Input
Amino acid sequence: MNYLAHAFLSVDDPYQLMGNIWGDLLRPKDYDSLHPDLLTGLKLHRTIDAFTDQHASVHVILNLLRPYQGKYTPVVADVLMDFMLSKYWHRFSPMSLEDFCAAKYKVVEEYLYLIPEQLHHRILRMVSHRWLESCKNKDRMEETLKMLSRRATFENKIPEAMIPYEKHEAVMDEMFLSFFEELRQHISLQNVH
Output
């Protein structure tokens, strides 16, 4: 799962939101200095990632992408799942995607002090580029895929990720919707919040 899904799956607690959405940026050496509720958000992040990594529907999506994306398949799948979440947003939230994201940007800016200072510039740049909305439609998706491709270490076909998605759209959407509903239930049952 990528940033939008992590933000969506966070409770309305700024500490847990900050730990969950920035879980991939926080390093173990920083943990001792973090607020305890931020660590609860980090635990939520790990729970989401672990459930995602083992889910059969996600494996179907990965297998459909792998012939096109090779070693970058997991990264592309994470971004595509945020695209699918955006596509079906109305099924999961009465709030518009734009309003949801605007509210989360405000929380990130207000509670940035909870995150190690060396990450502030990167996070503020992401907010200024409205990164939670980076997969909200095909135009933004294409920009995001090109950016990921430029940042990748090896030669890749990341910008072409929409080709296998469009070829297998019905199956991928079905797999995502099944998976995401189960993920939401898992988070609720685990009482990770």
